[in-house]
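Dear all,

This email documents one entry for the complex benchmark we are building for the journal club exercise. For each entry we list the sequence lines for every component of the assembly. Then comes the predicted three-dimensional structure of the complex as a token string, followed by one or two observations. Please use this as the template for your own entries, and keep the labels exactly as they appear.
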Amino acid sequence: MVQRATLTQVAQRAGVSIASASRALNGLVASPATVEKVRRAADDLGYVPDASARALKMGSTGQLTFAVDDIGNPVYVEMMTGVQEVVAAGGYRLQVTSTGATSGPHSVLDLIRNLRRGYADGLILSPLRVTPELLAELAATPVPVVVIGRLPQHAGVDTVMTDSALGVALAVEHLHAQGRRRIAFLNGPGDTTPGAARRRGFDEAVAAHPDVVASTHEAVDFTMSAGREAAHRLLDPTGRSTTAELAASPGTPDAVVAANDLLAIGALHAAHDLGLDVPGRLAVTGVDDTSLTEIVHPSLTSVSLASRRRGQLAAELLMRRLEDPARAPQVLSVPPLLQVRGSSTTTAGIR
Amino acid sequence: MVQRATLTQVAQRAGVSIASASRALNGLVASPATVEKVRRAADDLGYVPDASARALKMGSTGQLTFAVDDIGNPVYVEMMTGVQEVVAAGGYRLQVTSTGATSGPHSVLDLIRNLRRGYADGLILSPLRVTPELLAELAATPVPVVVIGRLPQHAGVDTVMTDSALGVALAVEHLHAQGRRRIAFLNGPGDTTPGAARRRGFDEAVAAHPDVVASTHEAVDFTMSAGREAAHRLLDPTGRSTTAELAASPGTPDAVVAANDLLAIGALHAAHDLGLDVPGRLAVTGVDDTSLTEIVHPSLTSVSLASRRRGQLAAELLMRRLEDPARAPQVLSVPPLLQVRGSSTTTAGIR
DNA sequence: ATGAAAGCGCTAACAT
DNA sequence: ATGTTAGCGCTTTCAT
């Protein structure tokens, strides 16, 4: 721990005015001699400009914020990677905030309110739920916000979205092509934006196939443990069937489409608990195509939503708006892509 | 997006001086009438104080930083949870930075240098490598730093450590008690602090057992893919043996002690690739006891290093130092604890 | 209880 | 090319 030097001290030591010192340090007009003197003085003193003073004067902090609901979900880590790449290239520093529960003391709303104090020059946000309060807060914020997700048309906010409904449909089509006909949908909370979209995608996809027997189930959140629990109820409603009974029963689904990878892995565990072979008796698919797909066995078929790419695009939108605050809000979209792995294909399941 | 109001505007609207407005808003001496007027004006204008101006005047930002090498490793997410709990309770806001590669453009060193600009009031750091440069930067920083990890004695920095050498020894003892005698150590880079400590723990533990045949191997980093690759070389040195040959060979280890969970899961995959049964033919243990231990099958025996608790303790140390910068540096330690699961016990492996 | 004014550290006119 | 000065928005003496 050490005392900080101010520009005044540097100027004094260099024997020049504070203005000259500032100019020399910032590469503006200054004689080589002055630059040399000032630079040496700054080095001697270990001078670094004060962020608060600079921000106050310049009206910007050089800092950007990325806010996610749950940094424990690898999909957000991947998004962050994409954001970080672009943000760093643009000369900004990135800070990450995990808002956790949407209503806690560190809710997204508090975060945006805090942003109005000027902690950062911009925000990238990937909200699970888009409430009227959130939209109001978004409209009232003095710093640019880019949302990764889906917003009402009139929101007038830069947005990067994807078609996760189509993504789920891709999974259903794939399973149908593999001969699966009793397909269960394992959703997260239906009142979330992704929950609603994926549910819609599932409903529409199975509606196109009259030969499919479909059912829908909701886990309490998008986590593995919630998925495991919900999948248990889904696969073994009475909670007391034997493996043989379950496997033989036409009531037991032959495929589970989960709304994200965490839920899908929960389903994988439930299937194992109940002795149902994956993919032999039961196929499982996820959404997000996170690194977890390769961690489990069999590896998990999953719909890629190009998280890293979405992060990059969001960061690019933000930087562009920072340059030109008046430009029209833009909505970008990336297509989903099914990644087939062992959990849904009997042939690929055996190596 | 919206314009920000300043205190001056609030004061004007309330018909009082800027000083009175400040006092009223901050709950200092002010008549009820003034408080009422000012509060109303502030509400009307949607006033929030400017963070930069406040920080410049007060000399502190109310912000703390938590820096980790790789936010993709769940152990850091867990640490962060602990940090966040304490930091929030203390009224500070937390920002997280993933420094990635130690030498990249966003290295820890840059981070600490940035901190000298006054972006945050304090830093919690969990470095993989403790270089002389890092120590120098630590000594020169004007804001308090707490390190989670191990530092040279003379560093004079608040530290939260654990005995990961003992942790690895715990794993070795457990495996020995289970009858394993050909134990391989799968380390990460040996030039890292945890790498060195865990290596030492392994060497000492096996030295106490003359009947153990030990070997040591290094992965290029602490990731799953590096672990898988290194485990392949470890289990199948020629790269062309059949499963039967490997299983029958006395040269093939009957246990792998990995230096963290990611490496251990890599080893699990390598074992599966090669057809070696876990835990039947090969036991595997990890370190960190992350959530990943429950994701894999068989579930992973792992040494808990109480990551969340260490995060809490680090945050408490930091807050205490913020209150009293003069207090003597403190070193806290938490003990390791072995969590036995399916990957190391033949009985527990069969459910 | 309230107002006037100084000043945190810095940058950017403006003048020389 | 360099120095003087105003001022970013806020808190806090110091008078009154």
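Observations: Chain B touches chain A through 54 residues (CB under 8 Å). The radius of gyration of chain B is 26 Å.
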